[in-house]
Design brief:
This protein is an all-alpha fold. The protein has five helices and no strands. The protein folds into two domains: 43 residues, no CATH class; 54 residues, no CATH class.
Length: 97
């Protein structure tokens, strides 16, 4: 077997990843993205995370406050609990509402 250069190995990895993604259903893609985002935010404290959310929503803290209220006002313990008790979430894949 031929040894790949580091550039070739990167290209092989890219093609393999593209093949994986192309063969995934939407639910699997959503799950992977959700897990990656959660891992990325895992070490953020409340102040840092609030700044990120507010920045994402155009410097408007309303959405952050709404999200906080869903956690403090309802018994959801995970994203899975939220989805199973809110069927409208399963069909609406909009971003940044």
């Amino acid at each position: 077997m031929t040894s790949l250069t580091s550039d070739q190995l990167v290209k092989v990895k890219e093609k393999f990843c593209l093949n994986l993604v192309n063969n995934m259903d939407l639910d699997t893609l959503i799950e992977i993205v959700h897990e990656q985002l959660m891992q990325g935010y895992d070490d953020w404290d409340e102040v840092e995370f609030k700044e990120e959310v507010v920045s994402y929503y155009g410097e408007d803290p309303t959405q952050y406050n709404n999200i906080v209220n869903t956690v403090t006002d309802t018994p959801y313990s995970s994203y899975g609990d939220y989805v199973t008790t809110n069927p409208e979430v399963n069909t609406d894949y909009g971003v940044g509402k």
